[in-house]
Design a protein that fits this description.
about 240 residues, alpha+beta, Immunoglobulin-like, 3 domains, 8 helices, 8 strands
């Protein structure tokens, strides 16, 4: 087996391929790009036309200047609207991928958690987000449920179900994936088990982490990071939740 074949089978290639597509899906999404171009165009419009009219007398001024400015804006918009496909195919050739590129759509109209796709946390406008990935490597989907809920599974539009808060899914064709939530039955953060989540729980967890308290009544309620352990990360998250109230 040659070095190229070894690379294609490595986790490094997997990480690079998915990270590249994460970046492409985020940076070249038409809504985001067009909104950013419009924002920058509005900001620089007047000063750009004024500068050209003052220092480049041969440049089209007045109404023609406006037309020229819009032409340049349209050129930039057109470039980015066509950039995604060549960039993705170039990466495919560079990494020696052989799989198919298909569209993954996340649908989460319940809005009871935060969804992550590999390295990005996409904004689900209207409860949906779409991006493309190659079938060579699985995509990692994760959900961090809001307090009082947990993710039990992920369902696809073709009837498949995957269980767990984090799953790996090969995108072999266009697919829509929906996280399924349920009430946890536990008051998140209520480690002293008094029926409410407040600063007393924060104090108890801090004391336990420092070794001043030997036990906590309900350690699972304090596992806010859902990694089956209590640590300083849970304390930080607990503090964030209390501040955000």
């Amino acid at each position: 087996m040659n070095n190229r074949m070894l690379f294609q089978k490595s986790t490094v290639c997997w990480d690079r391929a998915n990270s590249f597509m994460d970046t492409a899906n985020y940076n070249f999404g038409s809504e985001r790009v067009n909104a950013l171009i419009s924002e920058l165009s509005s900001y620089y419009h007047d000063v750009t036309i004024d500068t050209y009219e003052r220092f480049w007398s041969s440049w089209r001024g007045g109404g023609m200047g406006e037309t020229g400015y819009n032409d340049e804006k349209n050129t930039i918009t057109s470039f980015y609207s066509r950039r995604y496909d060549p960039a993705a195919e170039s990466m495919k050739r560079a990494l020696g991928l052989t799989g198919r590129r298909s569209t993954l759509t996340i649908k989460d109209t319940a809005g009871k958690g935060t969804i992550s796709v590999n390295t990005i946390t996409p904004e689900l406008k209207g409860g949906t987000w779409s991006g493309q990935y190659f079938s060579d490597y699985p995509v990692t989907l994760s959900a961090k449920a809001e307090p009082g809920y947990r993710v039990t599974s992920w369902e696809t539009n073709d009837g498949r179900a995957y269980f767990g808060e984090s799953i790996e899914l090969y995108i072999t064709g266009d697919v829509t994936v929906t996280p399924v939530y349920e009430e946890s039955g536990t008051i998140v953060g209520d480690i002293n088990n008094d029926g409410s989540f407040n600063t007393a729980d924060l104090v108890m967890l801090s004391s336990w982490l420092l070794g001043k308290t030997k036990t906590v009544p309900d350690w699972q309620a304090g596992d806010i990071c859902y990694d089956n352990k209590l640590d300083s990360f849970d304390l930080t998250e607990m503090r964030r939740l209390l501040i955000g109230r």
